[in-house]
Structures are given as structure tokens and as C-alpha cells.
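retry 2 of 3: previous attempt timed out while embedding flavin mononucleotide. Reduced batch size to 1 and resubmitted. Inputs unchanged:
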Amino acid sequence: MLRYLTAGESHGPGLIVIVEGVPAGLPVSEEYVARQLARRQRGYGSGGRMKIEKDRAAIRGGVRHGMTLGSPVSMWIENLDFANWTEAMSIAPAPEGADRKVHTHVVPGHADFPGALKYAHHDLRNVLERASARETTARVAAAAIARRLCEEIGIEVHAHVASIGDAVAERQGRSLPDWDAVDESEVRAATDEADHAFKQRIDQAKANRTTVGGVMEVVATGVPVGLGSHVQWDRKLDGRLAQAMMSINAVKGVEIGSGFANTRLPGREVHDVIVPDPDDPRRFRHLSNHAGGIEGGMTNGEPVIVRVAVKPIATMTKPLPSVDINTGEVVEAAYHRSDVCQVPRACPIGEAMMALTLADALLEKFGGDSMAEIGRNYRAYIASLARFGNPNNPVTP
Ligand SMILES: Cc1cc2nc3c(=O)[nH]c(=O)nc-3n(C[C@H](O)[C@H](O)[C@H](O)COP(=O)(O)O)c2cc1C
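retry 2 succeeded.
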């Protein structure tokens, strides 16, 4: 089982993550983690914070001479912005007269209203500091380890933006985007037309002093058949992926494959026909992939596709009417430096949650304490699939 815990506030000294369950013998480097963190920081429509932070995770345990040891991997990511917040975010009581950057004007759609009432905070900063998507930096660092594990099995994880506001650029059929082109695009669009349309919607939102959301599509290729299970509710991989994606800040909807569109089609046009294919390790393949690579809570060997709805950011330069949490006075919602559209930047976070979920499922299926052991289990399983769909190798009772 792969577990991880993050800690740290958005403007505090930094973020910590501990990843437990990583097998020994996995090649890992700070440079690899840094590349993943840098991908999270790019994106048209980002606010000023991303210009301040140059994220780098220092590995503090669990790795020796470039290889994991099997012990927990711990990482520390400094918040460079903390230099501007030493008094407001001081761990020790702030000195008399210090600028504590207290704020009390609720932002509708953010975590501050329920968080203040639940935790008995009269300064909304005490909620926002942790509710901020800055926390996902630590998840992306943890996921870099998971991604390395997935890569060893041949799994690649990517994401692109499928829509921003009413600008929709869906993939056609089974074709997947050119991922290098997606990486080049500031809005993580698969085509030049989509790049242009998405930027236009973001510029429009900015001009109107509002924000705009969208849909990202997270895709894992090279996933073996049989990760997850149908036998118990909490082992179903679609359920685990949905929870992982839903836990990303501002995510309000998840579909596996073309889940919602499938509801408008007859069954004959929805289900993915299976045909023999001696060249496939499964000795079968599907003619389409509306199921998004998961049937019965298990991967079926097709690309795993999860589509994720990201709401528009709650903090806006022209704020909504709101309330002061302490006085009850009617006020304008607070405005703090904020993004106009976070959907492109949500993509590496979606990839992170996919990699963490798949790595956990891989360990469950091929479990071992070292990469050598996992490799043996994986190869033996793939070889065993040749017993299916093969008249020369009949199943013996
Ligand atoms: C990459 C990313 C960046 C975000 N940036 C902001 C931001 O600048 N301002 C903001 O109000 N919300 C931002 N959010 C969303 C909030 O963190 C989120 O809406 C808030 O925590 C309330 O939680 P919920 O929307 O999941 O219910 C961002 C989310 C993501 C994924």
C-alpha cells in the first residue's frame, strides 16, 4: 500500500510530505521531482504567486545514492514567499503590533465559511492557509515517486485541457493528443485552435473581472489489465480514482471515460466490443474505449481516462457580496492575489492523483518489497495471460 501525508500552510515556512510503502531499488532523483514541480507552476491565467515560487523538493530520507531504500521517503519544499510573511505566519506568538494579515470577509465558494465555524477560527486566514491549492505542491512531489514506479511498469500519465468555459475541444474517438504539443501549450491544449480559444476565454474572464473553469482529461497508457477489483466497494479502481480527483481543490465532478455522454446513447453505441488480438499481451483488445479503461472496478488494459470538472476560482477582483464572519456585517468578499483560471495548472495535479492511485493499485497487485520482486511478479502475471484466448494452450481444469 502506498500512503502519504502532507503538512504545511500556503504562506508558512514550507511543505512537508512523507510517502510510505515505496519499494526499495526505485531510481529517484531531486531533478526528476523538480521537473514535475515545474510543470505544476506553468499556466496561462496564473496569479503572481507562481512568479515568486521556484519549487524544489529536498529529499530528506528514504533515498540513498539515487535509489529508494524501502523506508519512508520524506521531502521538504520551502515556500520562498514566506520571506514576506514572517510576522503574519510566525510559528511563535507574533510580537505586539505585528501585521498578522487577519481577514474576516468570507469568500463565497472558498473553504473559509465552513472552516471558521467548524474549527472556531475568527481569523479566516487560519482556514485559507491550508485550504489553498499550494498544498498540492506536496502531492505532486509525492506523485513524482509514484510516477517513477508507474514508469518502471511502462505506465505513462498525461493530462490535457478539454474545455475552458464554453470553448470545448474534445478528442475524437480513440485518438490521444500529442503530449509534447500539450506540454508546449500554456493552456495545456492539444491543438493550436484550442490553445487560441482557451486563452481567449481566460482573457475575457480577466477583462470582466471574473474567473473561468473547465474540464481536464487525465490519461494513463500502458496500464495492465486487472488493477483494482470488483469484489469490494473500496477496492474498485474507478471509485478510488474518483475520490483522488475529487480531493483536488475546486474539482466538482469526475467521469470515467465518456461517462455522462454515455447516458445519452443507446447501449449498442456505448459498450466497447472485444475482439481477439494475438499481438496484444491480453490476446484481446477493445474496438472503442467509452469505458475509459475500467470495467467492474478493474482496468481492462485500455488507456485509463478520467475527465475532471474544475469550477471557476472563488476569489475575484470584482468580489461578490458577502459577510464579515465576526460582526455579521454585509461586506464585499475578500480579494487576495489570485488566479483567473487554474484549469491548465490543475492538469499536473490530476496526473499526480492518477499516478498515486495507480501506483497504489500496482503495489496491491504485484506487491513486493523491492523493485526486483515487483518486476518478477509483473512479468509472471503478464506471461500467465497467454493462457487466455489461445487454442494451443487450453486451460487445464
Ligand atoms: C491549481 C489551483 C489553483 C488555485 N488557485 C486559487 C486561487 O488563486 N484563488 C482561489 O480562491 N482559489 C484557488 N483554487 C481553488 C481553491 O483552493 C478551492 O476552491 C478552495 O479550497 C475551496 O475548496 P473547493 O472548491 O474544493 O470546495 C485553486 C485550485 C487549484 C487546483
